[in-house]
Amino acid sequence: MQVDMGSERPRILLAASGSVAAIKFGALCHSFSEWAEVKAVVTKSSLHFIDKASVPSGISLYTDEDEWTSWKKIGDNVLHIELRKWADAMVVAPLSANSLAKMAGGLCDNLLTCIIRAWDFSKPLFVAPAMNTFMWNSPFTQKHLDLVGELGVSVIPPITKKLACGDYGNGAMAEPHLIDSTVRMYIANSHDQSTNTNC
Ligand code: PCO
Q1: Burial class of residue 4 in the structure, from the number of CB atoms within 10 Å of its CB (0-12 exposed, 13-18 middle, 19+ buried)
Q2: pLDDT of residue 16
């Protein structure tokens, strides 16, 4: 059955941070662009793993460099604020251990974390963590997840499989189709609730 989300496609900001799972970012962009208007934000470390050619050509891809090359004088738009205003929802996939820690502490030292620091938490923010099992099982992780959970961030949990280093364990990013369907269903349900006046 087709999901009716109204005539306008939702505006989704897709972001990648520096985990090996960023190799799947292109696939994620393809999936989301089938039903949403997508803009992409990538960190410097994520670019180590992302093949830019895998991102559909219709999707604007923003990096830290774009933040300040687009600003010249007082009154000019600031990119992280413009993207925060533009998006109906944000999805960080993969979310690395480092970016999770920064999020939990409110640090903002790159385009991605500046958007999160300025985020309007009345809009959905999803994260799909990805890291080695030892990092996932570290007590830091639960503390950081609790902090971002209190802010209203939704976590799409990692899965157990073979990791980048050859270890087998929990910490692999959820599959792109699951991230896509989780976000899509959430947005379709929110749309249904806001348009259903009979109950
Ligand atoms: C370091 N980090 C990781 C990142 C999480 N791993 C994954 C998967 C990939 C292969 O399917 C790498 C995408 O294992 O999301 O492995 C580990 S030492």
Answers
A1: exposed
A2: 99
Q: What pLDDT score was predicted for residue 191? A: 83
Tell me the whole-structure pTM to 2 decimals: 0.94
Query: Which residue's CA lies nearest to atom 5 of ligand 1?
Result: 172
Yes or no: say if 95 and 59 are a contact pair by the CB < 8 Å rule. Answer: no
Q: Is 165 a catalytic residue?
A: yes
For 186, the token pair is 């959430």
- CATH superfamily ID and name for 11-198: Flavin prenyltransferase-like (3.40.50.1950)
> Which residue has a Cα nearest atom 9 of ligand 1?
21
29 a catalytic residue: no
Residue 84: the pLDDT is 98
The whole-angstrom separation of Cα 195 and Cα 54 is 36
Q: Would you say the CB of residue 89 lies under 6 angstroms from ligand 1?
A: no
Low-confidence residues of the chain: pLDDT under 70: 1-7, 197-199
Q: What is the 3-state secondary structure (H, E, C) of 149-194?
A: HHHCCEECCCEEEECCCCCEEEEECCCHHHHHHHHHHHHHHHHHHH
